[in-house]
Amino acid sequence: MSTTIMIDDYKIKAEEFHKARIQKQGKEKWKVSFQFKVKSEEYHDITKLLYKNDFVIHVPDENLSFRAKIANYSTSITNLYEKDNVGEFELELVEKN
Q1: What InterPro entries does the record tag this protein with (predicted)?
Q2: Among 26, 5, 24, residue whose Cα is nearest residue 95
């Protein structure tokens, strides 16, 4: 089942969505993790967004919203600049102070 996640104003169709409350620096914070597909024509926009590493996250189906930064990030493919390639990204975001 997919979950819609908004990273700033960028809409992502996420798979394998998980949310949890964690302890970090003596405070309880949200952590979300998910996977999503990125097509070669989306690659520039998504990587430009992720390089900011300061986001507002909205998960409408979970009634969840918070400021976040990347805790973990990986991709299945590195040549998404080549036409018609599709990669799977894995992203873990943690609530900022």
Answers
A1: DUF3219 (IPR021596), YkvR-like_sf (IPR023105)
A2: 24
| Whole-number Cα distances in Å, 70 to 31, 81, 83, 92 | 10, 22, 27, 6
Residue type, 29: K
Which domains does the chain carry?
3-95 (2.40.30.80)
Q: Please answer whether residues 43 and 81 qualify as being in contact, where contact means their C-beta atoms are separated by less than 8 angstroms.
A: yes
How many beta carbons lie within 10 A of that of residue 4, not counting itself?
A: 14
Nearest to 49 by CA among 62, 68, 65, 33: 68
Six-digit token string for 17: 């969505």
Task: Quickly state the pLDDT bin for 68 (edges 50, 70, 90).
Answer: very high
